[in-house]
Specification:
The chain is mainly β and 206 residues long. 0% of the residues lie in helices and 50% in strands. The strands form two sheets. Strands 1, 2, 3, 5, 10, 11, 12 and 14 form an eight-stranded antiparallel sheet that branches. Strands 4-13-6-7-8-9 form a six-stranded antiparallel sheet, with no helix packed on it. 38% of the residues are buried.
Length: 206
């Protein structure tokens, strides 16, 4: 599968799961100016997300994306990655980038999970709250999950970490999922994730 979305127009393409969950505010998800924007809201325990099914992969898959956050907020975690369910709340396997916390503004977490066991590392890389997007990559195959980040174009400039434990199988159905989970108590203010491009290639060799 090869897929690229620069979010042209004013609505998501039909490839994407159109509904965000919970559907308490349809205006939380907008498309415009070649960007997808998702607002977190402040409701405690709430997860908002949008998903795209990409099916089972033959050998490997590379997910590239560029994005920024309006600010870092305590009691709030953002994520983008490959999950084994369109709903990240029930997924058991994933390879994802995750961002949380209000003070560690240069830290992101590169994480993999398989059937509840998780491997992760904090990566001290500049992220999110500037005017320019940051580029990220997740490469997943049967042996490893490699994470890269840096710059504003593909491929990202810096090799961050390679996880070899708790790797989600690429031969199962996978979804690209991006979203946000609020803790309890919820965050003090709503923040916004802006995604400029999503790019996917499967069965690549490097």
């Amino acid at each position: 599968m090869a897929f690229r979305d620069d979010f042209g127009g004013t609505a998501l393409r039909a490839d994407w799961l159109q509904a965000i969950k919970p559907s308490d505010n349809a205006g939380a998800l907008t498309v415009g100016s070649s960007n997808l924007s998702l607002q977190s809201g402040t409701t405690a325990g709430q997860t908002r997300y949008v998903s795209l099914g990409i099916g089972a992969q033959r050998r490997s898959i590379a997910l590239n994306f560029t994005f920024l956050l309006s600010a870092r907020q305590a009691n709030q975690a953002w994520f983008v990655g490959l999950f084994n369910n369109q709903d990240p709340r029930v997924a058991t396997d994933w390879a994802r980038w995750r961002w949380d916390g209000a003070t560690a503004v240069t830290t992101a977490y590169a994480e993999t999970a398989m059937t509840g066991a998780t491997t992760g590392v904090g990566a001290a890389q500049m992220v999110t709250t500037s005017a320019a997007v940051s580029a990220y990559r997740i490469f997943l195959d049967t042996l490893l999950a490699n994470f890269r980040q840096g710059g504003t174009a593909f491929p990202p400039t810096t090799d961050i970490v390679t996880n070899t434990l708790h790797i989600p199988p690429v031969q199962q159905n996978l979804w690209i999922v991006l979203g946000c989970t609020n803790a309890n108590p919820g965050p003090a203010a709503s923040q916004t994730m802006t995604v400029d491009v999503i790019d996917v290639v499967d069965s690549v060799l490097a």
